[in-house]
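Bumping with the actual sequence this time:
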Amino acid sequence: MVQNMTSWDLVYYILRANVDYVESAYCKVPQRRTDEAEVRHLHGHKVTGIEKRGEKVSVAYTTTDNIEGTMEADLVVGADGPSSTVRSLLQPDVQRTYAGYVALRGTVRENDVTPKTLEAFKDRFTFFHARGIQILAYLIPGENGTLEPGQRLVNFVYYTNIPSESLDEPSKELAELMTDVDGVRHRITMPPGKTNPKVWEKQRVIASEKLPPQFAEIVRATKKPFVQVVTDVISPKNEFVDGKVILLGDALAGFRPHTVASTSQAAFDAMILSDMLSGKVHRTEWKKQTLGYARTIQSRGVDMGNRSQHQDLPLEQHIHDRNLASKPREEEIWPHWAIVDVV
């Protein structure tokens, strides 16, 4: 099937251009309409409390400058990600749990890889599976959203198992991977460029040993890798405070990356919420569809992750049997089972 790829930075600036007219090199800013509401982004504000106050909801916050304040709203939408602060205030028992593996991520400019490697990923969505490993790669827009050949980026997501009982008491291996160059340990995400070079060198060596050469090349070549701990989280409900506080997107259900559906969930939740508020969809139907989407895809992601990371895949067994029979050289094996062209 056709795969249309993009990048988060391009999506972000297109949204900001159309929502609150932020200028950037990514796209032109449309002309402001006279009949639209004002949109304001208040950065550096952390929600610390939510309570009903008459017909409104009072939201308490603290800024990065340690200034405390409150604001009132008719409706509060918690769209603050899988580690949602809004959700934690309303449902402190709903926590993210470790799935047993991490996603190593990075990009490499296509001009910086060998022609043979670029051929494996150009115009393809390419996968490789092995025991406890899944890696995939594809091209995305380059700097400022450019689609110029040579300037685009090869983006990879590399899932690898790292045993640990929990996030709160991580294993030595997980704690080492999530401790940055400054000695600060991160719980869920290691920001790009903060990975300890000595720790990443171990991953580069492992990539050379366990991955096909095309994948090993891009993992070894990335200059600003980052790490995402794969977790599960889902809220049993999506509305609180007599329906005046609503959870949306990842704050409602954090999907595993295999589903490629987190953005779709956020868009779906936003559109059907708009339809409900405008009277096009009954509140009961809105709730049914929103929770149904969250539960279905969240469960599907768990199944996909378990199959990918903790089961022997039929393809792997088939190739293993074939290799035992013929015992070809390594360079003859990779092209037959590392490249999957679906475009």
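The tokens above came from a reply further down the thread. The CA atoms of residues 212 and 225 lie 19 Å apart.
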